[in-house]
Amino acid sequence: MNISKTNRPVAIVTGGASGLGMATAKKLCDNSIKTIIIGRNRTKLVKAQEELGPNCHYYAFDLNDLKNIPELIRSIIADHGKIDILVNNAGINMKKPFMEVTDEEFQQIITTNVSAVFSLSREVAKIMTSQKSGTIVNISSMASQYGIPKVIAYTASKSAIEGMTKAMAVELSPLGIRVNCVAPGFIATEMSAKALNGDPERKQKVLSRTPMGALGNPEHIADAVYYLASESASYVTGTVLPVDGGNSIGF
């Protein structure tokens, strides 16, 4: 990506204070991109900003507050002038047998993982349309590639993200806005640790069907997001890129 010192790109990374989001924010910041991280926990955001350096800025905001997302984007534009990259990374998971999941639990994950992505993307797309350029990168999951037990709501949400990626790309690409998706495999993060630690059978199954034989690391995802957001991917839109060590095609 060619970076002008006087006209640096501005990126938003949701859930950017930890895990895959923070790794992605670091990749962008390290490449001279002004990067705005969004999350609910101000303490974590401040700590992340200190670690990521002067290219990082933060907004403390709960993305479940859908009605105030337009105001959030207006504030970002007022402060930073434009938005060139949106990375929809924020998401929550819940490991629970299908028949024990309540309507409220299911809806909570759909609101955070789908509705917030829709609302934020819609508002950012309005800005990018006026700029006649921009790129959106969504984050899905291996849960959308094949069936995984005990994550019914998460699976539904990430399957929706992949469908939305394609639908958004068809509408927005003619307007100069590329939309793509990264589908992480099993990556060594706090979220995956909760799912795999204490469940050795599940962890062994993950590794046995991953041809590369190991969990990925957050930097693998960050590299893929950076590629899709960069000029190197200028003719790439509507794609879902698995970054999974071959897990999605493993036997």
Automatic annotation (TrEMBL):
Keyword annotations from UniProtKB, A to Z: Oxidoreductase
Stored InterPro entries: NAD(P)-bd_dom_sf, Sc_DH/Rdtase_CS, SDR_fam
Enzyme class per UniProt: oxidoreductase
SUPFAM superfamilies for this protein: NAD(P)-binding Rossmann-fold domains
Name of a matching Pfam family: adh_short_C2
EC number: 1.1.1.47
GO MF term set: glucose 1-dehydrogenase [NAD(P)+] activity
Gene3D superfamilies recorded: NAD(P)-binding Rossmann-like Domain (3.40.50.720)
UniProt key word Plastid: no
Keyword Oxidoreductase: yes
Entry's family note: Belongs to the short-chain dehydrogenases/reductases (SDR) family.
Name under which the protein is recorded: Glucose 1-dehydrogenase
Lineage: Bacteria, Pseudomonadati, Bacteroidota, Cytophagia, Cytophagales
